[in-house]
Structure prediction request, 163 residues.
Amino acid sequence: MSAVTAVASVAASPTGDGVGDFTFAYPPKPLWSRESQRWALERVSYSHYHIDDRLLDACVAAAGKQPPMTPETYANEFVPSLMKAKSRFYEVCRTDGIKVPCQIVWGSHDPLATFDHGLWLFRGIAQKQRVAQFHVINRTGALPFREEPAAFHQIVAAFADGH
Prediction:
């Protein structure tokens, strides 16, 4: 059986006040450098112990694979595309619903999207999908799968085993 797990999905949660704009304000220069990647990861995490050289190497490598997004590209292409996808997602939730079991996994201290954002995302899905679950992993930010990997694995495995 197919199923969906959304993890700390700020992009899918209802649009709020754009806390990402505040969270990522005034990053260190140069952008996309190891220092700026660490800075960003620290801002979205509850604790920093999971930020290691391997993660930073992967982030720097990923940033180097594509041209950096300019503020104009972000405003004129990315944001409208995200809003269109989000609108379509909530339209499906209101009409036909998601046809497979769904779970939402959220970090209790996510600085990009509050607990309420996650709960509203869950409510949108659960209105038409009766097999829906909402899990919060305590003392985690936007990366609960890195900050508390054992708890995250237990939640996902239990959901997969049950469906």
